[in-house]
Amino acid sequence: MPKSKRNRPVTLSKTKKKGREHKETVVNSIRDAAEKFDSVYVFTFENMRNLKFKEFRDRLKSSSRFFLGSNKVMQVALGKTAADEIKSGLHKISKVLHGDSGLCFTSLPKEEVIRLFGEYEDYDFARTGSTAAETVELKEGPLDQFTHEMEPFLRKQGMPVRLNKGVVELVSDYTVCEEGKHLSPESARILRLLGIKMATFKLHLICRWSPEDFEVYREGLEDSDIESS
Predict the structure, then answer these.
(1) What DSSP line would sit under 125-159, residue for residue?
(2) Which domain holds residue 183?
(3) 145 with 74, same domain?
(4) Which of 71, 135, 149, 183 has the fewest CB neighbours in a 10 Å radius?
(5) Does this entry carry the keyword Nucleus (predicted)?
(6) Quick check: 39 and 208 in contact, CB under 8 A?
């Protein structure tokens, strides 16, 4: 007997947009962190990988707290000007929260924070639209790393391949990607199949605030620029 459509389970929960209540929670959390920790850093990142960032964050969870998200919300929490900043000098931090930025509140010594951020990096496969770090060329001939079942898929990626006695073979030289050019979806897939990792997840410190001082780490960004911006 066919199942009744009336008995089908229905999911009532829906994904809600982050509204005012969420923003207020973030603002309060940032302000609490500003009271709890000794200093705050602004950092940027290249080739963000959520799992890798979580690993880094977990290493520092006993002494630090990280915030990623809306720069505007973080600016409101810290204060955009000297008149509304929650601590003296914190509006300078807001001035450099642009693009892919985050906050790190910590009680670790400055030297250790600089070392940890500077040392941490991880390699991963590049995604579509990323810039190729090198030129990858495949020469005409057999591609022993691929099984015969892969031949139709490789052909769909634009590779000039054929089966020759059950072996995948390139019928002519093929350039997967060129250094400095953006990766197409096909190029990104082929690089993954070849096991070539071109993306490096890295974190860069921009500046540091503490009750005693304010330091700029990014080349070309001066304290006077922040004051006048």
Answers:
(1) PPPTTPBPSS-EEE-SEE-TTS-GGGHHHHHHTT-
(2) 136-196
(3) no
(4) 149
(5) yes
(6) yes
Residue 38 and residue 208: Cα distance in Å, rounded? Answer: 11
Distance CA 119, CA 125 (A): 20
Q: Is 167 exposed, middle or buried, given 0-12, 13-18 or 19+ CB atoms closer than 10 A? A: middle
CB 75 within 8 A of CB 14: no
- Do 165 and 127 touch, CB atoms closer than 8 A? no
Non-local CB neighbours of 77 within 8 Å, separated by 6+ positions = 26, 27, 28, 30, 31, 34, 86
What confidence score (pLDDT) does residue 43 get?
94
Nearest C-alpha neighbor of 134 from the set 185, 200, 186, 193: 200
Tokens of 80: 């955009």
**How many Å apart are CA 23 and CA 29, to the nearest integer?**
10
Asked whether 184 and 175 are in contact (CB, 8 A), the reply is no
Task: Specify the pLDDT at position 106.
Answer: 95
Res. 47: pLDDT tops 60: yes
- DSSP H helices in 6-89: 20-36, 50-59, 71-78
Residue 70 lies in a domain: yes
User: 9 lies in a domain?
Assistant: no
Q: 116-131: per-residue pLDDT in tens?
A: 998 888 888 888 998 9
Q: How many residues in total does the chain contain?
A: 229
